Structures are given as structure tokens and as C-alpha cells.
Amino acid sequence: MTEPDRRAEGATIASPGFSGTEALQDQDPLSLEAEIPTTPMTVNLGPSHPAMHGTVRLTVTLDGETIVEAIPEIGFLHRGFSKSSENSTWHQVLPYTDRLNYVSPILNNTGYIMGVEKLIGLKPTERAEYLRVLGGEISRICDHLTCVGAIGLELGAFTVFLYAMEARELLWDRISELCGARVTVSWTRIGGVATDTPPGWEQRVRDCLPRVMELTNEIDTLLTRNRIFIDRTRNVGVISGDEAIDWGFTGPCLRACGVNYDVRKAHPYSVYDRMDFEIPLGSRGDTYDRYVLRIEEIRQSHRIVLQCLEQMPPGPIIIDDWRYALPPKKDVFGSIEGVMAHFKLIMEGIPVPAGEVYVYTEGANGELGFHIVSNGKGKPYAIQVRGPGLPILSALPRLIKGHAVADLIPIFDSINMIGGEVEQ
Amino acid sequence: MSQALIDLVREKFPEAVVSSHSHRGDDVVTVKRENLVEVIDFLRNDPQTDLKLLRQVAGVDLLTYRSEMSGGAALASIEVPAYDVQNKPKVEPRYQVAYNLYSITRHHSLRVRVELRSDDLKVPSITSLYRTADWWERYVYDMFGFEFTGHPNLTRLLMYPEFVGFPLRKDYPVRKRQLLVPELDFPDLVRGPGPGPGGAGVPMSQTHVGRENVDPSTYD
Fold it and tell me: Using alpha carbons only, what angle is made at residue A15 by residues A14 and A18, rounded to the nearest 5 degrees?
């Protein structure tokens, strides 16, 4: 078979059943109302596409410009989080949780460690609680900035992306000063956190926050009342509150539909009950509401960060119980008890009592849950994670059906799917 | 959080409940598999319970739960060997499926659980009650191989279709490797038809076709 023949054969197989011409024969082909004969076309979007934020493949069936059907296919980024965790000690799981939602890793660290502490029945020190909330809210701002910047970038507003990245870098610098890493922080520990704030850190956060808020306001001014932006996002990807709950939505995507559910308010954990903040709610559940809600949440997180800095008491950052927390190095090298505690913790792991818990915290994109089973040994028996993005991504076909292909990208941006947590 | 939900389920379905307990604030009720759909249907639609949000469906394999393999005498830093299914006693019922339900209006949660014996892995699907159950059940099927009867599209979610075995079962070794995936015989608009049977230039990976006749333990 010659080369052109093979091409022709491939072409006929790829677009079968070109039909519709018979029905058009009655029409005047020169009439303006005449239908243009079209056949549904199947287009692959991703997995390697810069707008797919990671590695999701969408098989989209198009009728002209309209999306008839979309089938998401995930798993290209699957790294076996659960299986790896089952073969690591309780603390060795921490670095894996960094890589779930890699834009706000401190929130994942906190969520997982709270699960282990719930199994043990342990309460971290007060300063550690404040530090977790502080770090978590800074991470939440970073996550929302990333989402907002990406929406702007992919709708052609490149400046917005640059502003968001500048603000995010300022905060990530503070996080790297606090934890020693920008993204893969592994910062929390059972009963506390790994490192205390370095000298002068609080002041540096106070100094950089005005610039972050200035940039956020700049983004707000550029997009929120922008005619082009509103036209592209208003009434696009609409979902009602009841339907969103049915699809398992949580977080900003659910609150954009007007459903008031935020774990920080519904079941306050850590020190969120001492914080004064509000939960912004949307009304229409469209792409625009999801965007505005994130801008508003950045402001609320900013309030929480300031309150944390104000209220944070001095004191130990980790509990003084050597069954669960590593002893200070002075004791490890200076006393036999310290050496023994260190050895047993590292070699045998922490004896977490047997049991099964589901622990849930408010991640940046919704409820981050961990279903943890322990059999009383040094390793988790089973861990399964509820990434907030997974149920939301499963509803993507529902959100984009009937819209033009150009609306796909803003809708996909506004749900802020993070590949790491969805594909585990 | 409270015993009220468990009491309500026990009162409504005295036959269905196998056991129930509360641990660390989590309420758990284990129901019979035949009654799973009606219990969850009641919990979802009754205004008293109103558990409209399905948070997650999780699977648990209890094969090594009580054995020495998963810690204890063995040091935590040493990798756990896979469970020797031939020479070790079977644990029955081996599997559990846990449905974590939550009510946004009433702020209470309940975990409904079913137990499965390893010779019968059928679970009724709840996709008719929750849309989000679609992907969660696909996930659990992917990882554990439970057959959710009535699911519209029970295919693997995270792993690829050619994957052999179910990775989160405890007898699946951590370092087990899989065969290469053969190139699909798929017509390509640019390159022409794929290699096909007997076609020239069959890639190396094609030589593994026919894996269904290969004993999975031999290519570990």
C-alpha cells in the first residue's frame, strides 16, 4: 500500500458516517438560513497541554464549536500514594502528602497529621496550632493566587498572571524561611511542627503582606469589572447548589453556588474558633463567582494571618512526649533515654493505637479528607485520601456540556484541579 | 459525634445492621450488603439525617491486619513482604467498603460500612443516589477489584486498562512490576494505520501480547 493510500484509509476510519447531506438537498444552498453540514468531531485535549494543569486528558466531542460530550481520563500522574504510605512509617508519609496538592503543601501536612493525632488522641502545643493555621492560611493565599493567575493567563490577561506570581513568590519566600523549602515542606510533626519561626520572621511577614494585598487588589481591579472577562465567565459553567452537593463539590466551588459549608466554620479545628473571619458566598455558581470568591477568600485569609501573628503565644512548638515526638538533639547525644527514644521512633515507628478515622480539614480547593486505618503498629495500615479536586473534576463534563470549546479552559481553570491530589 | 444516627439506623433497619461503634468521634455502622442501598437511600433522603454529601468511598483489605507482617517484631524501616496467600490462613470477611457520608445542613456525619468475603466481591452500586459515587466506585474497583453491580461504567480510574491485579490489596507486592503495554492498532491520520497483526515493524512491546495466558506471578 502506498503512503497516500494509507493516509486516505486512516482518514475514512477516523471520521465515519459523514451524513446529513441528504437532508440538505431540499434547501437552497445559497440561503443564509441553510444549515452547514457538520459531523461530530472528536478532539483530544491533553494530557500534555499547558492549559490542562498537570496531566488530564479530555476526549471532547464537538459539534461545530459546541461541546457535545467530554470524557476526562486521569491517572497519568498517579504515584501510588496509598501503597507507598502503607509501606512507610507514620512520619515517612509526610513527604508524600506534600506532593498531593503541591501548591499548598502545609494544608496537606496539617490534614494528615491531624488524622494521626486523632487516632492517638493527642493535642499539639498551642503555639504549634497557631503556626499550623498561620502557615496554612499563607498556603491558601498562594493556592488561590495561582488559580486566579491561571484564569487570567489563559483568558489573555498575562499581567494578572505576573502579578499573582509576584505575590506568590513573596509568600513562598516566607514559607521557605519558615520551613526550609518552598514547596516540599514536610513541616508538621505529630504533636507539633518541625521548626519555629526564625528571628524577625513575623516582621517580614507583616512587611510583605501589604504588597501581596496590593497586588491582589490590582488583580481585582483588572479583572472583576472587566467587560471582556465578565463576558467570558458570567453564566458559564453554571451549577446549582443541590446538584453541586450531589456531585461531591466542596470548598470554593461549592460556596460559589451559595452553599455555606466551610470546615473551618462548621467544625472549627486547631484555633480557627478564635479567629474572626467570614465565609464569602456566591450566588450563581458560575465561573465568575468561583473567581470572585477566591479573591474574597484571599482577603479573609489575610485577616486570619494577621490575627495569628497577633495572638500567637510563645512556647514549645512540639509536645514533650518522647513516645510520639523526637527528643531534642541535646538529649539524643547527652542521655541514654534520649538515644533510646530516638532509636525506637526511627526504627520501629510511632505506636499509633489501632482504629479507623476519617479526618477532614479545609484544603485550598475544598474538603481534604484522609481515611486512615491503623492496626497499632509502626506503619499506617491503610490510607486513602479524598482530594477535593477529584469529585469536582468528575463533574467537569457536566459543567462544560453545551458550551463553546473556548469556554472549556476558563471553566477548567476555575475548578482549580490540582493533578497531585486528584491522581494521588 | 453522637449516638443518635446509629440508633436511628438500628431502629429503622433492625435486620440490616451487623454492628456499630463510635471511635474518636466517628460513628460507624456496618450493614448487610443486601440492605446497603436502602439504608443509604434512607440516610440521604430522610430530613432527619439528610446526609446529602458523599465524601468518599474507601476500601480496606484486612488480610494482614492481625499478622506480624505489618510491623511489631519486624522493624518499621524494613519493607513488609507480600502476604503469602498459599501458606497463610485466610481472613474472612477480608474486605470492607466504607462510605463516608456528611450532612451539610445538620453538620453530622456517619460512616456506613459493608463487609465482603473474598469469594464474592459484589457490592451494589450507589451511583443512582450520588453522582459523585461514579468515580469513587471506579477508584475502589481500580484499587481493590470489587464489582459494583449496577455501575454504568465500571472501568479503571487511575491505572491503565492493561494493568494486571489490584494494587491496594495486601497481597500485591509493593515492588511488583508490570509488562510493557503493546502499541495499540489504532489508525493514525498522520502515520497511517498501526502495525497490526503481521504488519512490518512490530514493536518490541507487541511480543508480550497474549498476557492473559501468562501466570501473573511469573512476571513479578
Answer: 160
- Of B139, B133, B79, B169, residue with least CA distance to A78: B139
Exposure of A154 in the CB half-sphere (CA atoms within 13 A): 21
**Percent of chain A surpassing pLDDT 90:** 25
pLDDT band at A162 (very low <50, low <70, confident <90, very high): very high
What is the pLDDT, as a whole number, of residue A210? 92
The total number of residues written for chain B in this structure: 220
Max Cα distance, chain B (Å): 69
- Alpha helix stretches (DSSP H) within A2-125: 3-14, 21-24, 81-86, 94-98, 105-120
Among B24, B131, B139, beta carbon nearest to A355 = B24
- Helix A126-154 / helix A158-179 crossing angle, nearest 10 deg: 160
Cross-chain Cβ contact B189/A386 below 8 Å: no
Complex ipTM more than 0.85, yes or no: no
State the amino acid at position B5 in one-letter form.
L
* The Cα angle at residue A115 between residues A112 and A121, in degrees rounded to 5: 145
Q: Identify the closest residue of chain A to B64 by CA–CA distance.
A: A381
8 A C-beta contact, residue A360 and residue A367: yes
pLDDT value at position A20? Answer: 45
Are the beta carbons of A7 and B157 separated by less than 8 Å? no
What is chain B's alpha carbon radius of gyration, rounded to the nearest angstrom? 22
Q: Would you say A140 and A299 are in contact if contact means Cβ atoms under 8 Å apart?
A: no
Rounded to two decimals, what is the model's pTM?
Answer: 0.83
Three cell numbers written together for B86: 498459599
The Cα–Cα gap between A307 and A205 comes to 12
Are B53 and A250 a contacting pair at CB < 8 A? yes
Q: Does B111 touch chain A (CB under 8 A)?
A: yes
> Mutation test of the interface with chain B: which of A6, A84, A245, A347, choosing the one with the most B Cβ atoms within 10 A?
A245
Nearest CA in chain A to B55: A248
Q: Residue B170, exposed/middle/buried by CB under 10 A (0-12, 13-18, 19+)?
A: buried
Interface contact B130, partner A, CB < 8 A: yes
CB within 8 Å: B23 and A355? yes
Q: Looking at the complex, does the CB of residue B192 fall below 8 Å from at least one CB of chain A? A: yes
DSSP category for residue B218:
G
pLDDT at A133: 92
Distance CA A384, CA B109 (A): 18
Is A246 within 8 Å of B174 when comparing Cβ atoms?
Answer: no
Per-residue pLDDT of chain B (220 residues), as tens digits, is 467 888 888 888 888 888 888 888 888 888 888 888 988 988 888 888 888 889 999 998 888 777 644 444 445 545 555 566 666 667 778 888 999 999 988 888 889 999 888 888 889 999 989 999 999 999 999 999 898 988 898 888 888 888 888 888 888 888 777 777 766 665 555 655 555 444 444 444 444 444 445 555 554 4
The one-character DSSP state at A390 is: H
How far is C-alpha B114 from the chain's CA centre?
12
Residues 6+ apart with CB under 8 A from B20: B6, B9, B10, B27, B28, B29, B30
The neighbour count for residue A208, using CB atoms within 10 Å, is 16
